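User: Just a sanity check before I run the rest of the batch. Below are the structure tokens for the first item. I only need the designed sequence back.
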């Protein structure tokens, strides 16, 4: 094993190459990224960076000098044209990069509004990379009108930032409630009230029929017949795994690039990690979209390339910042049949159960509840729901089982 190539210079790609070096790999490492900037953090883009609270250099995951010092060939602004699996080469236009092991950390791409309904008009944005945020920033001016399409976490975070920038904000969600796909009604109710208290016009059960404007968006027609004026539209309608390169190479795809428990694809010389990869989990197969997963899975892949042969064991956690509320999520709530509310006033948490088994916790400004819930989930401890619901009870004592 002399040459390792990583395609995708995001969180997963950056974590993989760093782990390879810390694990003692001294062969050639090449990191290829489409963007012209070294690997950087994405979560602050649509929050601190867009609000002007974080500079570009603070976004970088590592100083630029790190890659030279670590002997890593960093190829930026370099789209990959294809993968020659037989020859074990990555194709970059007229150039070939050989590999002994190849890691696909291609991430995900935002779903865009169709051009047929005005999605290609000026002023219509998505939130994913640095260029997306830089493009929308000049239009976020006090008094201007923003339409947010989609009531998931991306849409809600965009709404919060737009309000902080002094914009008039309307958010539409086609489902009956915001966060319907990812959270319990109790969590939806909490964030609905939070946004309305900050002046966001939230409309649920309402979709977008079309955008209007001559070159630049000026309005929208909604599925209930309402017409809105707007100066900017932000689409927060989800992301899709970036699998085009893997598909073209003939790799197996199943809600992302299909891998085994160690991160290996259907080609034993090719691995995948991060948003683009789906992997075995509790008898099924999942794909996780989070910074934590990108880092942990990529580090496991790096270890396995070097022969560790360890399965990836995710400990899912997520977060979202909206106004003065920090939401922290531990676990996966899939299959829950009961939600226990722990209301401590300023600190609040929602505990998801399936029968008597604790699955997940949504903690709003409740870092203690989050940390204890996370430890319980990892340890397989399921506390008495009646005790959880009583804020006078010490959560730490519940760790005893």
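Assistant: Here's the designed sequence for the first item:
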């Amino acid at each position: 094993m002399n040459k390792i190539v990583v395609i995708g210079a995001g969180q997963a790609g950056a974590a993989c190459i760093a782990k390879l070096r810390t694990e003692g790999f001294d062969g050639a490492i090449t990191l290829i990224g489409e963007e012209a900037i070294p690997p950087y953090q994405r979560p602050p883009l649509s929050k601190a960076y867009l609000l002007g609270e974080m500079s570009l250099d603070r976004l970088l995951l590592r100083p630029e000098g790190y890659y030279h010092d670590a002997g890593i060939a960093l190829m930026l602004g370099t789209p990959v044209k294809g993968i020659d699996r037989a020859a074990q080469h990555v194709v970059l236009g007229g150039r070939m990069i050989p590999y002994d092991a190849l890691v696909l950390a291609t991430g995900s791409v935002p779903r865009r509004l169709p051009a047929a309904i005005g999605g290609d008009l000026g002023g219509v944005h998505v939130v994913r990379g640095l260029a997306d945020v830089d493009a929308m920033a000049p239009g976020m001016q006090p008094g201007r009108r923003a339409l947010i399409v989609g009531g998931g976490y991306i849409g809600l975070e965009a709404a919060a930032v737009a309000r902080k920038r002094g914009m008039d904000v309307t958010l539409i969600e086609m489902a009956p409630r915001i966060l319907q796909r990812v959270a319990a009604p109790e969590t939806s109710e909490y964030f609905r009230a939070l946004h309305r208290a900050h002046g966001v016009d939230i409309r649920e059960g309402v979709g977008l029929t079309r955008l209007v404007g001559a070159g630049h968006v000026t309005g929208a027609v909604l599925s209930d017949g309402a017409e809105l004026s707007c100066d900017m539209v932000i689409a927060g309608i989800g992301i899709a795994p970036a699998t085009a390169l893997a598909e073209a190479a003939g790799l197996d795809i199943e809600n992302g690039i299909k891998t085994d428990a160690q991160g290996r694809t259907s080609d034993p010389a090719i691995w995948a990690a991060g948003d683009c990869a789906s992997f075995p989990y509790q008898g099924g197969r999942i794909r996780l979209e989070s910074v934590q997963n990108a880092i942990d899975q990529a580090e496991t892949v790096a270890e396995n390339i070097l022969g560790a042969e360890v399965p990836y064991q995710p400990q899912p956690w997520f977060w979202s910042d909206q106004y003065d509320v920090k939401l922290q999520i531990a676990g996966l709530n899939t299959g829950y049949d009961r939600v226990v509310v722990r209301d401590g006033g300023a600190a609040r948490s929602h505990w998801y159960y399936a029968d008597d088994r604790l699955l997940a916790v949504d903690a709003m400004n409740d870092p203690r509840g989050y940390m204890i819930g996370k430890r319980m989930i990892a340890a397989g401890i399921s506390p008495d729901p009646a005790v959880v619901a009583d804020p006078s009870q010490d959560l730490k004592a519940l760790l005893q089982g």
